[in-house]
Amino acid sequence: MQVNPSLAKEARKVLDVNKQERHIRGGMATKEKYQHMHHE
């Protein structure tokens, strides 16, 4: 399978942003997500 370089670069950028945002918000979002999952 051949990877499109510009597409891979774009995906990397998105992943990096997601990682930064997750880091900024800390564990709050994760904790809430699990709380909601357990209540269903």
Write the layout of secondary structure elements.
Elements: H1 5-25, H2 28-39
Cα gyration radius (Å): 15 Å
Q: How many separate helices?
A: 2
Estimated structural class:
mainly alpha
**How many extended strands?**
0
User: Averaging pLDDT over every residue, what do you get?
Assistant: 78
Task: Provide the β-strand percentage band.
Answer: under 5%
- Global morphology: elongated
Flag low-confidence runs. Answer: none
Give the biggest sheet. none
Distance between termini? 40 Å
Q: Estimate the helix proportion, in percent.
A: over 70%
What letter string, H or E per element, gives the SSE order?
HH
Description:
Helices cover 82% and strands 0% of the residues. The protein is mainly alpha-helical and 40 residues long. It has two helices and no strands. The chain starts with a helix and ends with a helix.
How would you sum up this structure in a few lines?
This protein is an all-alpha fold and 40 residues long. It has helices spanning 5-25, 28-39.
Features of the shown structure:
0% strand; 2 helices; mainly alpha
